[in-house]
Fold each of these.
Amino acid sequence: MTPDLFDTHAHLHFPEFAGDLAGVLARARAAGVRRMLTIGTDVETSRAAVALAGREPDVWAAVGIHPHDAASADAASLAELERLAGADRVVAIGETGLDFFRDLSPRDAQARAFRAQLALARRAGKPVVVHCRDAHAETLAILAEASVGDTGGIMHCFSGDLAVARRCLDLGLLISLAGPVTYPKARALPDVARAVPADRLVVETDCPFLPPQPHRGQRNEPAWLALTAARVAALRGEPLEALAARTTANARALLRI
Ligand SMILES: [Zn+2]
Ligand SMILES: [Zn+2]
């Protein structure tokens, strides 16, 4: 029996997949990935995400401006994002958040773009997809100030420790585990995988980035979500099928799919 998986964070419309997207989607479906959320990172890729979701029955879109691109989040970009947010099959706003690891946009611009997208999510009545790297205190403070629990959201590619996970849960977020939970140096992620309540956990690839352990160094793709889900299921001591069904139900409830 193949598991029923939902890849809650993919960038299928990125150029890395332009040459063989049909094959990538076919392998995903064969591996049990029945639903995928493709995520925009600026206005242009958000448009591409919406277009792809319009073509594929098992792909939905999130529209947003990534912290790396936050310097581009001017009034015109945010207005266009708001227009896209109303499109068919757009089920979330993001990815948005803070990234103080790479600091590709100034930190004040990142915070401004993050707050603007949280407000947009509230107006649109859609949940947020949050990106956070080396900025947990600041990200959690902004999420709390915005009462993110009203729209709900996903802390994607969770990279914090148990204390950060508990704060995310208190704020009303789901926690999404990605390929790094399979790495030998997974730090606190195995503890997080065991501790998150069953109704608050989802899984993702973040493809083309962050492939799970046996594929490190290669382009990631949704078919490999089963490897990450199997690792999480083993850590929790449950069958893969049960973990897959539960995380899929959680994603569908939040995204209203
Ligand atoms: Zn991200
Ligand atoms: Zn991403």
Amino acid sequence: MSRNVKSLTELARPQVLGLIPYSPGRPMEDVERELGVDEVLKLASNENPLGPSPLALQAIREALQGLHRYPDGGCHTLRQGLSRFLGVRPEELCFGNGSNELLELVTRSFLGPGDEAVMGHPAFVVYRSVCQAVGCEIREVPLKDFTHDLSGMLQAVTARTKMVFLGNPNNPTGTCVSPTDLHDFVQELPRDVILVVDEAYREYVPRPLQPDLLRPIRDGRYLLTLRTFSKAYGLAGLRIGYGIAPVEMVEILNRVRQPFNVNTLAQRGALAALSDTAHLEETVRITEAGRRNLQSRLEELGLLCIPSVANFILVDMRRDGRAIADALLRKGVIVRSMEGYGLPTHIRVTVGTPQENTRAIKALAEVLGDGEAAVRSWNSAGERSAQ
Ligand SMILES: Cc1ncc(COP(=O)(O)O)c(C=O)c1O
């Protein structure tokens, strides 16, 4: 029997062809070589500028000897430690190769063609891509004042809605909703709609604004809250995140995950990072001070900052954001342009160390051609803040 040979594109699922591949950016070493600069400053992925906790590094070094063994597929030791740390039952925890993997697992477990998912716009791009990949319909609700419009999202829920995504704080805006509003939102959602609250930046949020999501889980709500070791814990390169959810949901996610999805070094490093409260507190402290400083310097340059509770700031450049990001790159500073998020005049800047923030502002002032005055004002403010 003769058969027409189909191309791989013809064989691929249409939902997959509709996906835009994630663009991870070029390696920093590449950019350094091309620009001839000693050190590129990367403020584009909301990483921890202090680096990993020394305790995590020590634990990772000790774990190297055992790399010929498969990882602990149930993350047993980390599960016990995290359960004590959070005050949750070990069975209420699930682990992923970054919280990104958990976003994928939850959509693959529950969503398919004919289902709908509700999310804000702009929000973290991965919510959209994981939903698209499983062929479910996406209902995007525009943010209001750069913050999730919870009543708009409730209105977008239909009989076909199975899942709602809420980044809190939201990426790329850095805004969060109040715990009371979130509590009311949870109560008003139909009980069989799964709410995914992505708290990748929770550790940076001032305590009074951190929602208690354990209570609704105990009350039987279908809620999955996602956290990560990639941001405040400084372990983005290890790829480990976790979720807290009702036991029944964790059991379902465990059916679709690969048996050894979290590697040994990640498990050991994460547990040690969890115990390093000094490193976490220092991270939060320099981020908060840096964000405040960065914001006022940006405003002195005539730019508009969206008030953020995370480790990054969304900035309206009031001109082509992509052109600004490109010009900054030529000066060795990498920030994220936001055209892909539908914000063509914005850029997103991660808060760095005081020295890094100074360098970024100087570069930006030069790019804006805003001259010496801005640079001088930054220098003197930088010196004041370093004291
Ligand atoms: C809102 C949000 N959620 C999840 C992630 C993914 O983090 P992880 O490194 O844990 O996969 C990110 C990373 O940028 C993020 O910004």
Amino acid sequence: MWIDTHCHLDASEFDADRDAVREAARQAGVTHCVIPAVHAAHWPQVAQLAEQHGDAYALGIHPLFVPQAQEADLLALDLALTEHRADPRLVAVGEIGLDFFVPELCTPHMRDRQWWFYTAQLKLAQKHGLPVILHVRRSADLLLKGLRQCRVTSGIAHAFNGSTQQAQAFVDMGFALGFGGTLTYERSLQLRRLACELPLSALVLETDAPDIPPQWLYQTAEQRAQGAKQGRNSPAELPRIAQVLAELRGVLLTDLAAASSANACRVLPQLAALYHHAP
Ligand SMILES: [Zn+2]
């Protein structure tokens, strides 16, 4: 049984065949997906999708949506977290974080604005006793600074791609690191080394579908120029991505499934009840 700890099932890329995508993942052994929200307008949908498919969800404002987010969205998030408090499928505040890769988000104003939304949402996670799902893109040190200022119970640093020291700092704060499709590229030398060096207890698995297609779905710029569409990632790819990690680490796939699922349930404690009571 696999848990995809980061799957944007609400994304428009799945509008035409969302139910079939989820069913294919189930057939592949992915019993649970965690669906993180990206902005306020999607909060009802991620909750509804989780309910429909027996999955889990998180509510939050993603750094890429900070430019259009309003101050009022933070108040709305506080309210939504209160309203959904009794919902066993609400497992975290997310997806929140900082993105210093996208140029528009790197202006001094946008850096400040991202920091404001990130730290405000950390405070809400703390207030509601929820873990966080973090978007980390050239921002690990500042994310850690925010966590030191406002401690939360635990969480996931998703699509982690930082240094060993940064990874250790997240682990020391009760976080797991999310690994996915990037591992499937032979040129991901540093990330592959990190994924092998870290204790197994520090890892969770994710697809970030529809994004981060694994190597077998990736279309090169040349192929795209010839009309091929970039491959769409889906939660059904998780076991095959995990197979790559299992081979890199020299562990059995079944052991990796058990360990990564246990880790996910440890850092997102609400997930444990869903996982262990799955049909
Ligand atoms: Zn995401």
